[in-house]
Design brief:
Strand order of the largest sheet: 6-11-10-9-8-7
Shape: elongated
Pathway: Cofactor biosynthesis; NAD(+) biosynthesis; nicotinate D-ribonucleotide from quinolinate: step 1/1
Distance between the termini: 35 Å
Mean pLDDT: 96
Structural class: alpha/beta
Pfam family, one: QRPTase_N
Family: Belongs to the NadC/ModD family.
Strand content: 15-25%
Protein name: nicotinate-nucleotide diphosphorylase (carboxylating)
Helix content: 40-55%
Number of strands: 12
Enzyme class: transferase
């Protein structure tokens, strides 16, 4: 799949630089003290449990960012199924470079593959409906770029990336401000003043708030923690005048029932905050290559 816009070269370069600095500091002394500088070797990435693989493209970017001479032969691409024991790729390069990047590559792939696998499982429950599965901002600090990328690899749709690319007026904004009507009015004035073209979404908790948000003419109405009957009534009330999003208390078991209400989107923080890591390892191939 095409790399998402937020995972651009500049953003990834900054992420990788910070991550490697955190791990290496003034040197990987275990490697520097025992491995010859010019020794060239191979290592294979072994998938140790069934999953949807994610992070292969990122792995190659990490390797080449650290050492441009490193080469990867890919056998399983991002988004593809893997079985326990499959080899996702083989990397060839200086042994020192392989060892110094190993942990970062595995940390990213294990986490991303877990998220992609969970997203794929959830999204499969929406097959045959028009409802799209969204992630949220409930991500690990400084790791959002990888976690949202993994959601996309798993078949989900990314919600806003951060606070800057959409106006979302949630319960606290509305409670602090006084009303949905006033909050939306101020948001529109702000966008006009600052010449910004951003969609406005409003969180609603009951049908009265849905009516108020609808009258305020917003781009999307979030139906937060509503029971199925209320949600169905809200969707009917909105009648495609704007987009609809179900959120709050979403579990895998209720996805199909929520989608049956006719909502355009279902957002779930669980895709990123509750996914388990997949067991993946990078093992040396014991064949010496003279460099």
């Amino acid at each position: 799949m095409k790399r998402p816009h937020y995972a651009n070269d500049e953003a990834l370069k900054q992420f990788i630089k910070t991550a490697l600095e955190e791990d290496i500091q003034d040197g990987d002394h275990s490697t520097l003290s025992t491995i010859p500088k010019d020794l060239v070797q191979k290592a294979q990435c072994i998938i140790k449990e069934d999953c949807i693989v994610a992070g292969v493209e990122l792995a190659e970017i990490i390797f080449k960012t650290f050492d441009a001479t490193m080469q990867m032969e890919v056998f399983i691409k991002d988004g593809e199924n893997a079985r326990k024991g499959d080899v996702a790729f083989v990397v060839t390069g200086k042994a020192q470079s392989i060892l110094q990047t190993e942990r970062l590559v595995l940390n990213c792939m294990q986490r991303m593959s877990g998220i992609a696998t969970l997203t794929h499982e959830w999204d499969a429950r929406l097959v045959g409906t028009k409802t799209k599965l969204l992630d949220t901002r409930k991500t690990t600090p400084n790791f959002r770029i990888c976690e949202k990328w993994a959601v996309a690899i798993g078949g989900g749709t990314n919600h806003r990336y951060g606070l800057y690319d959409m106006i979302m007026l949630k319960d606290n904004h509305i409670d602090y401000n006084g009303s949905i009507t006033n909050a939306v009015k101020m948001a529109k004035e702000y966008l006009e003043k600052h010449k910004k073209n951003l969609k406005i979404e409003v969180e609603t908790r009951n049908l009265d708030e849905v009516k108020e948000a609808l009258a305020a003419d917003v781009d999307r109405i979030m139906l937060d923690n509503m029971d199925i009957a209320t949600m169905r009534e809200a969707v009917k009330l909105i009648n495609k005048q704007c987009e609809t999003e179900a959120s709050g208390g979403i579990t895998r078991e209720v996805l199909r029932e929520v989608a049956s209400t006719g909502v355009d989107y279902i957002s779930a923080g669980a895709l990123t905050h509750s996914a388990k890591n997949i067991d993946i390892s990078l093992k040396a191939i014991k064949k010496l290559i003279l460099g």
